[in-house]
Amino acid sequence: MPEEKKTAEAKTPVIRPIKCSRKRPNQRKHPGWGGARKGCGRKCEGDKPLDNIMAIRFIRPDRDIYHAAGGTAWLRRLLNAILARNPDAAELELLRDRPEEHPVVKAFIEEAAARINAPAAPKEKP
What is the model's pTM? Predict the structure, then answer.
């Protein structure tokens, strides 16, 4: 008989609601922080930000040559070298009509050709 008393007196389990430790996305520690807004993000190096974006379409062989020549850095150096000469109207006309005859462009084309034709350096394994 004592065994029956124990079974009768057995406690029924108490069901409690489960508390989630994860906060909902809209309940942050700092509600005004984050998200896209004006002035956020990485600042550009140099005097002025590079905020004028242009897209150039290449066919694959031209793209490969552009990257082998130095890509964006090479093009930016070329433009800076031309701007450093303070070109007049005649020089700008030469750049527009016959760029391969411009002295700065000639030098950069020769540099790019040397870089493209140079043997690739072997990659070092870390």
Answer: 0.51
